[in-house]
Amino acid sequence: MAGRGTPATALLDKQRVAHTLHSYEHDPRHESYGLEAAEALGLVPGRVFKTLVAEVDGKLAVGVVPVTVQLDLKALAAALKGKKAKMAVVADAERATGYVAGGISPLGQKKRLPVVIDSSASEFETVFCSAGRRGLEVEITPADLVRLTNAVVAPISA
User: Fold this and answer.
1) What is the pLDDT of residues 110-121, one digit of tens each?
2) What pTM did the predictor assign?
């Protein structure tokens, strides 16, 4: 995308939500998009959250967890009152969200998916998550992230 605009940043601007964008040079050789963001921006990794798309009872859903942990699929399913969860096929996740893997944001998704944000987000005044492309993070309050994504907050990290 030209410039810094993404559907996520457009949503934040439209809703007049206070946020700060942080960009860095993405290294395609880095093994973890989230840890790369934390390192590049000099952040405590637990404050940087990754957006993972899963299938809960056959329907796509989103789990937002710190980059230092794994998504607990059973906990995600339970938070959404489902029975079974598994990670989504990358192509399905990209098609539904409108973002590429490594740049999927919980904000401004093409198809609004159910979102669960790990309860650890509430430990911070602000958190970081993808702003919709690799190398671009948005800093936002956990309350605004929950409100804009209509998220459930639950302990979903393993």
Assistant:
1) 999 999 999 999
2) 0.93
